[in-house]
Design brief:
CATH topology of chain A: Alpha-Beta Plaits
Largest sheet of chain A: 4 strands, mixed
Oligomer: heterodimer
CATH superfamily of chain B: Formate dehydrogenase/DMSO reductase domain
Number of helices of chain B: 11
Bound molecules: iron/sulfur cluster
Structural class of chain A: alpha+beta
CATH architecture of chain B: Up-down Bundle
Number of helices of chain A: 10
Largest interface: A-B, 53 and 39 residues
Number of strands of chain B: 0
Order of helices and strands of chain A: HHHEHEEHEEHEEHHEHEEHE
CATH architecture of chain A: 2-Layer Sandwich
Strand order of the largest sheet of chain A: 8-1-10-9
Helix content of chain B: over 70%
CATH class of chain A: Alpha Beta
Structural class of chain B: mainly alpha
Number of domains of chain A: 1
């Protein structure tokens, strides 16, 4: 039911995925809801008549596969931890001091002579089942048709509910606008046919951006042919940022391995959450 | 205390406490009104509860608005956007619930305004009708304060259905404490008839409160026990309030000892003589004030510990 609701809400967006209407009035919403009920009933009726429950079952299936779902593949083996992406992102959006849309974490572990340091670039995962969208009371956070999760900053009230709900700590409160903010895959760039700023600047070509649902795209081929992981899979968020060779150990692992582990988030929040 | 600023801090903590207390007061007032007959023995409980209810809830809502990011940058009225949308977000549902709560609880309080308000007067019907709405509304708001926190897997400390139950019981208990406190402060010695009613009502409130405290302790025990017996994120989260955790002393001293154990023991001693030997219910003035104050402090500290613990813990592993 909720999926359906989200699904229909997305219908109000224009052809290129941007919202054409500033916001829906309560009345439009009511009309839409009425129509939806009607269509649902219609659906059930037709299916029952045809003796096949295929239509409503398909409509109710979780996370309808989108025609387009932008995503990113990060090859951690190619990352050198130079923070070029962090800086490119900062300057692209004039991100205020103390907060990040994109950042790189260092994980140090082991004792000499077996010490190692790995790098983990982080950003919003543009989840297919985004908890941030579910909790937003104003509908300011929504998932576009192309799968990018964005925040309408004219609608957001800054309640910070989504900051709590994101299991990746990808969101922050923008101290200048007072609204929630995060990575948006550089929608202004990709709508002009460019790649996101972090992808553009990456010295190791560790970041591949593209449509993960298009079978012919570079990213979907790489995902198909490599062992990829996502972060916090058990949360059920179905992230669309994939990693190759990511070291996802965290400081709690010290209890199991007894090995020295230190995670440096390079953020004002020292602890990774 | 934790080096970092909390995303939801004191305004939200106070709001959860105040909304719960108001909701508890309203639910208590309305159910007492509906249950009591025409004799009017308990009418004053209903009256005090009705007058108290809208005040903490409204203050809590203002505090919530102060916490909004947009309010801090001078967009004073951005929160109105909450009313442009209805969706399944607990906060959206809560907004509408609170709006109805404040409206209806004010109407309900208004039916008690006439100086000679009594059961059977001309406001009796609307008062009772509103009371029927007020019971579910009060319980709804109290539960919602727990659902607001509980709805997120990203916060293992909060992500438990029993949290809403805990907040509901604590809300009812603090609501009753609010009524007791107001009454203890405003009460003046009157004729023997009024004294009798006062004692009967005091007994009812105290006896109800000890039941609620007992249930609350049980739910709290289950909450901690189940969290501790799991492995992984939830166990890690609960460890912040167990021995050695950063919030352990706050939790055990303020919430458990002051907020639950001490009031429970006092209330037990107060009601037992009447319960067992039919003696008259007597309370010393100082206890009459101390007991509800302890319950209220405990209720606030419960919100404080839960909200803080939820934000300093996170799912383990990445
Ligand atoms: S990573 Fe966080 S902010 Fe991004 S879509 Fe997922 S839940 Fe939302
Ligand atoms: S802070 Fe803004 S985007 Fe986030 S939940 Fe609140 S209204 Fe929605």
């Amino acid at each position: 039911m909720f999926e359906l609701c989200l699904y229909f809400e997305l219908e109000i967006m224009g052809p290129n995925g941007f919202r054409t209407e500033k916001m829906m009035s309560a009345r439009t919403m009511k009309r839409k809801r009425g129509r939806r009920k009607f269509m649902e009933r219609l659906g059930v009726a037709t299916a029952a008549a045809a003796g096949a429950a295929a239509l409503p079952a398909a409509a109710r299936a979780a996370a309808p596969k989108r025609a387009v779902q932008y995503g990113m593949l990060i090859d951690a083996r190619r990352c050198v931890g130079c923070h070029a992406c962090t800086v490119a992102c900062k300057s692209e959006f004039d991100v205020p001091l103390g907060v990040n849309r994109s950042w790189v974490e260092y994980t140090e572990k082991g004792d000499h002579p077996f010490a190692q340091r790995t790098f983990l670039p982080r950003l919003c995962n543009h989840c297919s089942e985004p908890p941030c969208v579910r909790v937003c009371p104003t509908g300011a956070t929504y998932k576009r048709r192309d799968g990018i999760v964005v925040i309408d900053k004219n609608m957001c009230i800054g309640c910070k509910y989504c900051l709590q709900a994101c299991p990746y700590d990808a969101r922050f409160l923008n101290p200048i606008t007072g609204t929630a903010d995060k990575c948006d895959f550089c929608v202004h760039r990709i709508s002009q046919g460019l790649v996101p700023a972090c992808v553009n600047t990456c010295v190791g070509r560790a970041r591949i951006f593209g449509d993960v649902n298009a079978s012919g795209s570079e990213i979907s081929k790489l995902i198909a042919h490599n062992a990829v992981t996502v972060l916090r899979k058990e949360m059920g968020t179905q992230p669309n940022v994939f990693y190759i060779g990511a070291d996802d150990s965290d400081e709690h692992d010290i209890h199991y391995t007894g090995q020295y582990i230190h995670v440096n988030t390079h953020r004002s929040k020292k602890e990774r959450r | 205390m934790h080096g970092e600023e909390l995303t939801w801090s004191l305004p939200v903590i106070s709001y959860l406490f105040l909304a719960g207390m108001g909701a508890g007061a309203l639910a208590t007032s309305a159910s007492v009104l509906l249950r009591s007959g025409p004799s009017g023995t308990y009418f004053n409980i209903a009256r005090y509860g009705a007058f108290i209810a809208p005040i903490p809830v409204s203050i809590g809502c203002f505090l919530l608005i102060f916490e909004l990011g947009t309010f801090h940058v001078g967009l004073w009225f951005r929160w109105i956007n909450l009313y442009r949308v209805i969706n399944l977000s607990p906060m959206s549902i809560g907004t509408w619930l609170l709006t109805f709560f404040i409206g209806i609880s004010i109407l309900y309080a208004a039916t008690f305004l006439p100086r000679n308000a009594a059961p059977g007067d001309k406001w009796d019907r609307p008062r009772r009708l509103l009371a029927w709405v007020c019971v579910p509304l009060g319980i709804g708001v109290a539960v919602y304060t727990g659902v607001l926190l509980g709805a997120m897997p990203s916060r293992p400390f909060w992500n438990s259905p029993i949290l809403a139950m805990l907040f509901l019981l604590s809300s009812l208990s603090t609501g009753i404490a609010g009524i007791m406190l107001a009454w203890a402060i405003l009460h003046r010695k009157g004729d023997p008839e009024a004294e009798h009613r006062y004692r009967e009502s005091g007994y009812l409130l105290t006896a109800t409160d000890i039941l609620l405290i007992a249930l609350e302790s049980l739910v709290l025990l289950l909450f901690i026990m189940y969290a501790h017996l799991t492995i992984g994120s939830v166990k890690h989260a609960i460890s912040v309030i167990l021995a050695g955790g950063p919030l352990a002393s706050t939790f055990w001293l303020w919430v458990v000892l002051l907020g639950l154990l001490i009031p429970a023991v006092i209330e037990l001693f107060l009601i037992l003589p009447r319960l067992l030997y039919q003696k008259t219910f007597e309370v010393h003035r100082s206890l009459e004030v101390f007991m509800p104050v302890a319950v209220l402090i405990g209720g606030f500290m419960l919100r404080y510990v839960v909200v803080t613990a939820g934000q300093i813990t996170y799912p383990i592993g990445l």
